[in-house]
Amino acid sequence: MSEDGYSRKKIVLAGNPNVGKSMLFHRLTGVHVTISNYPGTTVGYTLGRLHYPGGSPPGSPCSLAAGETLEVIDAPGVYSLDPTCKAEEVATGIIATAAVLVNVIDATNLERNLDLTLQLLEKNIPMVVALNLWDETAHLGIAIDDRKLESILGVPVVPTAAVTGEGIRTLVSRLASARPAPRPPSSPPERWKEIGRIVAACQVLSPRRHTFLQRLSDASVQPFSGFLLAAFVIGAAFVVIRLIGEGIIARLADPFFESLYAPILYRISSFLEGEGFFHNLLIGKLIGGRIDFRQSLGLLTTAPYIEFAMVLPYVSSFYLVLSFLEDFGYLPRLAILLDNFMHRVGLHGYAIIPNLLGLGCNVPAILATRILESRKERFIAATMISLAVPCAALQAMIFGLVGARGTLYVGAIYLTLFAVWLCCGIVLKSTVQGFEPELLIEIPHYRFPPLGPFLKKVWVRISGFLREAVPIILLGVLVINLVYFSQVFDVLADLTAPVVSGLWGLPRESIVAILLGFLRKDVAVGLLVPLDLSTKQLVVATTVLAMFFPCIATFVVFLKEFGIKDTLKASAIMILATTAVGTLQNLVF
Amino acid sequence: MKHGGCVSLTSLPAGARGKIVDINAGAGLRRRLEAMGLRLGTEVTKICGLPLGGPVVVQARATRIGLGHGMAGKVMVEAIRAQ
Fold first, then answer.
1. Are B71 and A438 a contacting pair at CB < 8 A?
2. Residue A436 and residue A381 share a domain
3. A453 or B2: which leads in pLDDT
4. For chain A, what is the domain count?
5. Is pTM, for the whole model, over 0.90?
């Protein structure tokens, strides 16, 4: 049953990882795409809709009516249907619900991909094979006779190139001709023999031509050139993220807020006569008679400003760069280069990916730790992320507020967080029970993602972030106003003064900001502004805020993934570590 | 089964080709390797090994695969002539 209650026929995309399945998915579906979790698990799948143009030929085993809206599901990529891991179980479950199966195959890697194909055929579901990455076979010297493959397999075979869009229309029109071509269940060695026969009959290999991207691909994993390239890529990524982020702020966001939005707010302000509960709630305090978007703390002023003029530009910019690195195929190479180093902190190379995601938002990062295989590793990675990886929202605020005092201080904060990250990993590695499995990943070819589907993918990520963030920001600002209005605040400040002032050297009032970090880190940093902190205090306060306790979204996800005991363990680690680090910073700086 | 002249993937020199003759590991690891296309009889070319106990990168047919050092140490290959 899909989310709007209609029971639609399901087209399921199944195939190995890295075959361009998600690009094909985005080519087939419109804008209504949702990313979900298979119930009861942590494995994700993507859902979309396809408006079916043609009709089925009479007597075909799967009936698709013209104009019918179909549900398209992108099942998790799997190498086989052996139930050895969660992703395979989930994929098998999703495949069982399919009206039509689209097996997406990497035409440049027929031999390995056909293993899953044969297993899928055994399921006796109407199937079509999409021979994807067809455009890459040419310069790799591969020639496949798709007609012959079709006659051997017994199901329609359509060459496609999701990157350029070739073959998509043919694929859609042939969905109606999908038919089951059941085979008796076979053992792996029998399958491999069969695959050998099929490949010998349909594929001819000739010498490859070396393209620049292929040479780059080789260089990216070699020890010397690989590390140089990695340093370059990471450096370039930061520069680009900063450029795009600042660009959006300077050219779009700030002008909009100052010139278009502010006048409206001034009208409301004077209508409310510049003071009173509603004025403070909506507009906030006037600083020197003027609305200061950062300091006024109103629901209509600071809340939207923080989200749309400080955080969103950086989040968008971050997701743009990360999605590009992902789709281009760079991340597995990075995982390999860093594997050794990551082992020292109790993780393996692949764990770099959730950590990188954490630089955008900790929530998808913790969800992404599911790709790691042992619980120990997942717990270590998730704790390190919650503790020491600042999300884009927080980073935007750090750059915006601390950056104004000097880039050096921003550096100090990042350095502290990195050191904490390392120590956390090293300590947890020896104290947490469990085993650390080894890296085993496929390295895809480099390819430039097609612009349309790529932008759509980035947009899906950004809109997901907005949907989550905006309500909580509003809640946060509301809470602050209530706290200031009531007397709770004074009691709180007195209770925590020994640590806040004594150990960390911060004014007692900063406790409100720190507590608000539980709701949202960016708003919390914003709360530091009216406190008039010295630069050193600002550095300590920001670091404490980043580490102290995860924001509510992260906390909830952590709880869901690891259960209450481990979440409490992680929380204790965070509180202790923060107290220690804050004190150290206060003493050292 | 003892095979003369076979080495682990970690010891195989970069650029050399080898045929997998043995995998000294339990069923779980074997299955993971097989799903990736690394089976007994598969011919692989070693692309490189990263220093200080880092992963090994091999090419098997059309796929490039990265394996952790420990795992690579369990895959035994018989060196064959490069083409």
1. yes
2. yes
3. A453
4. 2
5. no
CA distance A360 to chain B (A): 27
- ipTM score: 0.89
Distance of CA B24 to the CA centre of its chain: 11
Q: Are residues A198 and A308 in the same domain?
A: no
How open is the CA angle A284-A289-A292, to the nearest 5 degrees? 50
8 Å CB contact between A171 and A221: no
* Domains of chain B: total: 1
Are A157 and A283 contained in the same domain? Answer: no
Find the CATH number of the domain harbouring B74. Answer: 2.30.30.90
The residue in chain B having the minimum alpha-carbon distance to the alpha carbon of residue A78 is B35
What residue numbers bound the domain in which A97 lies?
10-205
**Does A278 score more than 60 pLDDT?**
yes
pLDDT at residue A65 in the model: 67
* CATH code for the domain of A60: 3.40.50.300
Q: Which of A222, A340, A444 lies closest to B53 in CB terms?
A: A340
Nearest-by-Cβ selection for A109 from B32, B62, B69: B62
Q: Are A222 and B54 in contact (CB under 8 A)?
A: no
Mean pLDDT of chain A: 83
A229-232, Cβ contacts within 8 angstroms, sequence gap of 24 or more: A230/A333, A230/A334, A230/A337, A230/A338
* Interface contact B68-A348, CB threshold 8 A: yes
Looking at A67-132, list the stretches that DSSP marks H as alpha helix, in order from N- to C-terminal side.
Answer: 86-96, 110-121
Comparison of pLDDT for A25 and A65, the residue scoring more: A25
Q: Is the CB of A221 less than 8 angstroms away from the CB of B57?
A: yes
Calpha distance A195→A29 (Å, rounded): 32
Encoding tokens for residue A145?
């006779």
Distance CA A179, CA A155 (A): 6
Which of B36, B50, B70 lies closest to A442 in CB terms?
B36
pLDDT for res B2: 44
Q: How many C-alpha atoms does A48 have within 13 Å on its Cβ side?
A: 22
CB A336 within 8 A of CB A439: yes
Q: Is the Cβ pair B50, A188 closer than 8 Å?
A: no
From A104-118, A328-342, A477-491, A495-509, the region with the lowest mean pLDDT: A477-491
Q: Do the chains contact at A221 and B48, CB–CB below 8 Å?
A: yes
Q: Which residues contact A36 (CB under 8 A, 6 or more apart)?
A: A44, A45, A46, A47
